[in-house]
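Convert to structure. Protein one:
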Amino acid sequence: MVMDQILRSKPFHLDDESIQWVKKTYASMTLDEKIGQLFCPIVFSSDESELQELVKTKHVGGVLYREGPGVSIRENYKILQDASRIPLLTAANLEHGGNGAVAEGTFFGKQMLVAATDKPERAYDLGYISCSEGASVGVNWSFAPVVDIDYNFHNPITNVRTYGSDPDRVLTMGKAYIQGAKDAGVATSIKHFPGDGVDERDQHLVTTVNTMETDQWRATYGKVYKGLIDEGSLTLMAGHIAFPAYEKEISGEISGIIPGTLSKNILQNLLRDELGFNGMVVTDATPMVGFCAAMERRLSVPLSIEAGCDMFLFNKDLEEDIAFMTSGYEEGLLSEARLEEANIRILATKAAIGLHKKKENGSLVPPKEDLQIVGCDDFKAKAKACADEGVTLVKDTQKLLPLDPGKTPKVLLQILGDFPSNDRVYPYMEKALTDQGFSVTKYIPEDFSKPLDNVSTFKDKYDLVIYLANIETASNKTVSRLSWFTLFGLGNNMPWFVKEVPTLFISLGNPYHLMDAPMVPTFINGYCNSDYVMDAVIEKIMGDSAFKGHSPADPFCGLIDARF
């Protein structure tokens, strides 16, 4: 009866045929298969025998590949699905485009760019395009949308991955993404419960803390999650995020900092009982320090499932983690009831997106012809429109724009940040400016043992300085701040010259750089470094297109000096 209630209720809504498949499949499973279904490892191999062994001997319930060439990713998924007795959930981080699954997929735009359009239809486009391109290679599970709320501009990991700091906008955009994913036939996983963006630290490096009081949480994160649960997201990703105020509300005290992935209070009382989530819960990546440092791994592996997670994401070592899960079951750390419930929800998720039927008719991985949708003209046009509508002029107090190569022909172009994408971004923008008629000089760090520019020589050399901040948010980067190449304030990297020469700052990543460069009088947020965004920036600074974006969070970081 309990099983039927799970399967018939939101978000699964399974019909009788699908319910029978879930029951029959579960009844046929060995203990090793039930344990194996709990795991979703990241896979790097393309060796056919290794892939077949993974599903035949480990019996994993899901897998994730990092983005790669569409043809090879598709072939790998076909090998895995053909070899697996139970169809696999195949995951990808489809947060900002199909390129999260397919290397040649559409880079639609970071979520904050989408939010800056203030158009939910662009969030729908993001969900539909990302998931359609992922589905073309066999992906059926999107680890998106990110529904964290970017309350703390110091946070180095939420940032442009979010829809901003307004819970209502986050909820609206999240709903639209989910609908787009549904229309593409892909399950979504809202993340990272109970909510990131308050702490300024990164779960990859530490168990982070949502420090909100429970009433405030319910009015913000709770509102978002309840709305998306009601919208019917099939799965939810639990983060390595502690919520001490809620722990105290339920237990009467705070006995320690425990991540949501290991907290019965957060997963059972809050998520299941209060918010009414009946779908499948997957942990965030378990090699993160935020999970590993909470307790001994031999305990945390089985206790994450016992606490209320249904699937265990990634591994320190798959064989060892399976052994920990098995011994935890044998020792009673993982109960029979929770093992069954987790498996039922995993199977129900698979049935809800029709994987059992696709397994029967051989369509779990689409034909090669479906790859034609990747990067198609329609998807590119929508990504271009999103960039046009999202790029945001934060301020232009010097009335610099639009630019005119006749007035400021000599440009010093400085790229900030040290990322591999610099090799793409800088030449792209340099060429675009040159094509507009500017003479562009690339900033080269000075040799401080040699004579440096004084004010007069600097003004003779340059009519305009353009900063190109390409500082991407990335795992294990504790800050996304500006660093200058300078000695005692000397050199031309740091903006000493803003009152001497017109200065323009273009951010293609972190939107909060006015924290470190408040003196720059003209500031643009592009939110990401896609070609579409760079093209839109050029069009707008040249006056060929109006700025249309609306800041989804405070780009002035609460600082009065940053506004001038």
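Protein two, convert as well:
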Amino acid sequence: MPLPEKALLLLAYMHLEGVSRLTRNQIAGLLWSESDKSAAQASLRKMIERIRRLSADGWDVPLTFQSDTICLGPDRMDADVDLIGGPSKLHDLKSMSGLLKQAFLQAPASIAFSVWRNKQIDTLFRRLKTALFEVWATNSRSRHLNDIVEIAYLLLEHYPDESKIREILVEARREGRGEPTPSPPDLRVRSSISTDGGGLPAPPPTNLPRLVLLPPIINGSALSSLASALIEDITMGLCSLRSVTVVAPYTAEKIRAMPDKATHLEKFAITYVIDTALSDEGLFVQMIFLPTDSIIWAERFPLPYDHVTLRRSIANSIVRAIVAELRKMEADVADVRSNPEVYLTYLKASRHLKGLSLPEIRRARSGFKDTLRLDGSFAPAYAALARTYSMEWVLTARGDRNLLSSAEASARLAIKGNPELSSAYRELGVAKLYLGDVDESLEALDRAEALSPHFADAIYSYADSLVHASRPSEGLSKIEKAISLNPIAPDDYFWSAAGASYFLGHFQEAISYIDRMATPGSAQRLLAASWAMLGNSRKARFHRRKAHELNPHFDLELWLSVLPVKEQWQKDLYREGLSKAGF
């Protein structure tokens, strides 16, 4: 029935409150509490008129109208639906869990209605908690372990300090696997688990930073079941932390499956993302500090045996590493909370750096300048600004030293603002490389890697500098390490790997790396040169035309004259390929 949204909310209110009649003043105050009395009454009259038109059109409307009251029609609601019945009616835990995961009366509502709705939600969760405790105390609990675990996670949203829920969650997991119950953990759980239905409503406010563990995409390999169990163990370990709140597995799985993860991570006010990926080599885990979109820790863990003790050992080592990083980031989190607009502006600008195109680079630069207008001492924005200048220098291939001077100056401002910022040294290294000072470039990039050994972007830049330092073999080895740390790597990683392969004479491998780029347009020149060196002039000419469309002003000799490589043989090899391709 096409009833107005406000009318549906009214029906829900009347049913759950057990009333069949309300005055018009009561309804206006409930549904339009922010409006003055005359405006609220006018809105109510419009709603009534819409409902009367539906009735005139033959719809069986469940409301009747009198001069000063609105009544609920007899036998209009399903008597079997009882959301706030006593705990004895909540034996089907799976059904109740599914109900509470859905958005509860989430249509636009007034403040008065929202207050009432929140009280109803609290009532529902109290009923569910009571039902869970009752079922857990019965001899039949073994038949409900999966539902019990799911509901225990759900209840931690509203009862983060309820020790009995935590104990049930741990014991249910152990019983489900036939494992002995271990001694209780040292740390109390401090978790605000968020769950959701199809719409993923925003989570309740919290004073602690939020962390989400994104599970790996199960690939059907023999390691899949072990990885799933390991993720559960890691989640349990993270729930024992008092310094963060943890998003529930249910919601984490939904976020993982969404094409626009960044939007939902922002919506949920996520501070830390623990991203995971599964391969034949084991489980890859990386920790991302979302306000600066930076990888602060990453590691790969082999999963050779499906053994409980080994699995727990790996889970514990992952949780310990995460705890160590959380402690290091306390000051940064405090800054985020005191300057949320600064970080949000920075994060939005950072997304434009994902694409290797001039329009995106320039949008990013504008965004970083906006960030610095909000906070002129924000070092990560200076480092990112430096990157936009150096990337434009590469993409335009005109040898504009002003761009590199701006990149170096911005990187040094970032270092001045934060001498421990790895990305600042990385951008200084990149700028010095393109300015022709390869040795100083390698020194800065070595410092960047030392400050953050798992910072894949810094390792990528280090690799790129090694290639330009006429050490392509070392560069390729390092870029492969960066790709292993960041398996869903950005295009510039593969571009750098392709360059290293080209200078090693592995032209087919260079092409293969470029084929892995999501947007290979920026590597068209290298692609054309690689095909030319393989003797395929048709494909070489095709990619030369593509490169010319992107940059019609490209001048081969001008580019080679400013290309920062240490030894002449590299320029000669690149000139040979580009010349054969028709540049």
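DSSP finds 26 helices and eight strands in the chain. Strands lie at 21-23, 63-65, 69-72, 210-214, 245-246, 270-279, 282-289, 294-301.
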